Amino acid sequence: MADATTESPDGSPELRFSFANRRTLVDRSLTVLAIGLAAFALFPLFSVLYMLIVRGGHLLSPSLLTELTPGAGMEGGGIGNAALGTLIVVVVASLFSLPLGILAAIYLAEYAGESQLGTIVRFAGKVLTGMPSILAGVFAYAAIVVTTKSFSAFAGGVAMAILMVPTIMLTGEQALRAVPEKMRLAALGMGASRMETTLRVVLPTALPGILTGVMLALARAMGETAPLLFTALFSDYWFDGKLGAPIASLSVLIYNFSGSPFAHLSELAWAASLVLVALVLVLNVAAQVIIRRPKEF
Amino acid sequence: MNMEIPMSAPDAAKAPALTRAASAVERGPLVMDCRIQRIYYGQFLAVRDADVPIAKNQITAFIGPSGCGKSTVLRCLNRMNDFVPGFRLEGSVQFRGQDIYAPGVDPVAVRRSIGMVFQQPNPFATTIYNNVAFGLKLNRFKGDYAERIEQALRGAALWDEVKDKLQTSGLALSGGQQQRLCIARAIAVEPDLLLMDEPCSALDPIATRRIEELMLELKQRYTIAIVTHNLQQAQRVADRTAFLFVDTTAGSRTGYLIEYRPTEELFNDPRAEQTKAYIRGEFS
């Protein structure tokens, strides 16, 4: 080797490890820098978690999740109606967004190809993923709350679904496209129609990827406040089976209670934040588990 | 004039028409009578003049240099080319007395009676059991699944290797086993014709030999058409061999049939100069 830094005086190649070698030095410094920056990026996440546990952790108890929100100035109570409300709104949102998003993904991946309609739908999806969530709320307000003359869980679900559909559609399309073409040909060669190929072969193969997109969309939608402020509003009572009535949710509870002058309510807001973050975390971890699952099936 | 001089190319191109009539009796009944005049992909003339009748319980091989259209011809036989944009066929492909390109014919129905094994093993991402059951489910088979699946896996010489792990993934098998799984999947529905498009090109020599032995067993019950770039393979397994060549004269690349004869005759006594040169290994 002609490189002076890698050769010892007697001409034999220098094989020993040394920080005197410039390449080694740069290599190690950059590694340390990268680790440092990664830790720095995680700092906000962990500091938020720390605050949530410190401020809201002491309220964690079974009654937190089983009792109604207390009125202003009252002690005790919990956030049970809000936690249940969040789940109900998410279920309503899923009922709309899952079929819509997955069918749109199938259209894009299996049928649209490079067609104009496909390109337009794909572009619209990308634009919608970046749309401010408050616009989804305003849209659902105008389309449903105004026309039905009532704030409702249903309107909240629709607003949330609008946020979820583009994510489900675009990640679903990627998952479907990742299914090898040779598997489609195998099914078609067996005499399966396009529909049978999609339903029996492509969709099951892509399912883990599609579910990941669904989980991510759910996790994001769950934490949104803006779309629910104008639609689901809030309620101090348990969900009574009527989707046409206002409903409580964790995110709106946090928004309402955190600014409250009553210390107990703002403590409940901390506890609700902790519960919400835990729910989102569970969904994200579930999504990771699905991705990491061996791709054998 | 010396009648012994080798035929020139135009004469050789006509030869299959003569052999067709001469050997109609020894060949037995036809499963498929493929009379391709022209195959187009858009404006591109991919193949012309390929008449290849396929006889029952025989193995028919398609050989020829790269780009001669042997895979294109094979894919015409179960309408897999329908998926290629711009594909157009002039001529007819008679399958058990019906033209599969006649108007009103459902290509999906055609493919249910004609199995296909691809160059790359392509099992589905599911269990071995479900892979073989796929065609049965498609055909709404009502009988004993376990029995048919065992029968198909035995037929594909895979049963002994997988009988204890039918519920594991087909993708966990080796390449050769995957290809035999694909064969089992195809024969589970008892197709009238099995098309194999270079089924061994992704396999090692030992796996290749197993598939070849398997083909010879399968022809007792099935009819097989195979595309291969391996001349020894054609010689080892095929009853009849079609040699296609590529015509580059008009600035295009159009494949056409040079001769289609019993394998032994074709290799021992090739008529056309192109065939002689090809089996001497002068080009590939």
Describe this structure in words.
The complex is a heterodimer of chains A (297) and B (284). Chain A is built from 11 helices and no strands. By secondary structure, chain A is mostly helical. Chain A starts with 21 loop residues before the first helix and ends in a 5-residue tail after the last helix. With 284 residues, chain B is an alpha/beta fold. Residues 1-25 of chain B have low confidence and may be disordered.
Describe the structure using short key phrases:
heterodimer, A: 297 residues, mainly alpha, MetI-like fold, B: 284 residues, alpha/beta, Rossmann fold, 10-stranded mixed β-sheet, 37% helix, globular, disordered N terminus
Short précis:
The complex is a heterodimer of chains A (297) and B (284). With 297 residues, chain A is mainly alpha-helical. Chain A is built from eleven helices and no strands.
Q: What string gives the helices and strands of chain B in order?
A: HHEEEHEEHEHHHHEHEHEEHH
Task: Say how many strands of chain A there are.
Answer: 0
Provide the CATH superfamily of the largest domain in chain A.
MetI-like
Question: Percent helix among the residues of chain B?
Answer: 25-40%
Question: Biggest interface pair, residues each?
Answer: A-B, 20 and 32 residues
* Tally of contiguous helical segments of chain A: 11
Give the overall pLDDT of chain A as a whole number: 89
Assembly state: heterodimer
Mean pLDDT over all positions of chain B: 87
CATH topology of the largest domain in chain A: MetI-like fold
Element-level helix/strand string of chain A: HHHHHHHHHHH
Total count of helical runs of at least 4 residues of chain B: 12
Count of individual domains of chain A:
2
The CATH homologous superfamily of chain B corresponds to P-loop containing nucleotide triphosphate hydrolases
The largest pleated sheet of chain A is described as: none
Give the second-level CATH assignment, the architecture of chain B: 3-Layer(aba) Sandwich
